[in-house]
From TrEMBL:
The keyword Metal-binding does not apply. Residues 1-30 form the signal peptide. It comes from Manganibacter manganicus. This is YVTN family beta-propeller repeat protein. Pfam families: Cytochrom_D1 (PF02239). PANTHER family: DIHYDRO-HEME D1 DEHYDROGENASE (PTHR47197:SF3), PROTEIN NIRF (PTHR47197). Keywords: Signal. InterPro entries: Host-pathogen_enzymatic-act, N2O_reductase_N, PQQ_b_propeller, WD40/YVTN_repeat-like_dom_sf, YVTN_b-propeller_repeat. It comes from the Bacteria.
Length: 331
């Protein structure tokens, strides 16, 4: 029999209590997050349970866009200044191959079946379609000037690319690889994210300071979300990364040099909250259990862990130099 704080607890009872706690709301499952450090030319490997960097891996020049295969075995990384997409084995964290991305790859999106990678080539005004398994370019799709944001519908049929200088969202048929619609949005669109049901795509405009909500069927803007943070000038509020919860109820928008993440009700489009994070927040990623959201904060060289239940920041963690992108392994 042990005595703790004046309360007697039998060892067997203690063990049973601990097991019960693990079933009914114990600590979150440990996942691994991967952070691309744009100026550090590295990836920080982060344990999301301990909230610590467990490894730093050297990669190509100016790593930005980052994603992971659906089975979690390979990381795909835009090494922008090397004009390539690096393929990294997550078991060894070694670069095992590369994909023919075209010049200056910045952002990309993996198809729902994991077979194709759609890459925005900023310098050539193209979207490059890559066969991941065979490492071949399937198509190069002309789009607007300075393509960046890439989003794909849950069914994989519609791809959306945003062109920064043209200020448009280009809707692309993934079967024909042709642009079928163009939707004008606000200045310098940086990111495109579909809602889980595929009915809408949310496009952030960095200079315009808005997020345009586009109806996927009608291909028209149905709402524009604006932001206002007390004490901050409007020009400092620059929406970039967008992440929508798996249940489709809340959207999270990284507001760049405003150093906040906005939480938006996807039904009413009302801003529910502004979460203070690090300096120059770029992008966001959920853990698979949707309990934690991670932001990359470029100017403060750290990431922030956010409790998705309370929408409160939990902890910040120093990573490499100018963290840009983040992805969390599915397992």
């Amino acid at each position: 029999m042990n005595r703790t704080g004046g309360i007697q607890v039998r060892p067997r009872a203690l063990i049973l209590a601990m097991l019960a706690a693990s079933v009914t709301g114990g600590p979150a499952f440990a996942y691994t997050a991967y952070v691309s450090n744009e100026k550090g030319n590295s990836i920080s490997v982060v344990d999301t349970d301990t909230m610590k960097v467990v490894k730093t891996v050297d990669v190509g020049q100016r790593p930005r866009g980052i994603t992971i295969s659906h089975d979690g075995k390979f990381i795909y990384l835009c090494a922008s200044d090397d004009d390539t997409v690096e393929v990294i084995d997550t078991a060894t964290m070694e670069i095992v191959s590369s994909l023919p991305s075209g010049p200056d790859p910045e952002l990309f999106v993996l198809s729902p079946d994991g077979k194709k990678l759609y890459v925005a080539n900023e310098d050539d005004n193209l979207v490059t379609v890559i066969d991941v398994e065979n490492k071949k370019v399937l198509s190069e799709i002309p789009v607007g000037v300075e393509p960046e944001g890439m989003g794909i519908s849950p069914d994989g049929k519609v791809l959306v690319n945003t062109s920064e200088t043209t200020s448009m969202a280009h809707f692309i048929d993934t079967e024909t690889h042709e642009v079928v619609d163009n939707v004008l949005v606000d200045t310098r669109p940086r990111y495109a994210e579909f809602t889980p049901d595929g009915s809408q795509v949310w496009v952030s405009a960095e200079v315009g300071g808005t997020v345009s909500v586009i109806d996927n069927a009608k291909r028209e803007v149905v709402h524009k979300i604006t932001f206002e943070i007390p004490g901050l000038r409007a020009e400092t509020i620059q929406p970039v990364g967008v992440n929508i919860s798996a249940d489709g109820k809340k959207a999270y928008i990284a507001l760049g040099p405003a150093n906040h993440v906005a939480v938006v009700d996807t039904k009413t489009y009302e801003v529910l909250k502004y979460i203070l994070v690090g300096q120059r927040v770029w992008h966001l990623a959920f853990t698979p259990d949707q309990k934690t959201l991670i932001s990359t904060n470029g100017n403060s060289n750290d990431i922030t862990f956010i409790d998705a239940a309370t929408d409160e920041p939990v902890q910040s963690l120093t990573v490499g130099k100018e963290p840009w992108g983040v992805i969390v392994a599915p397992n």
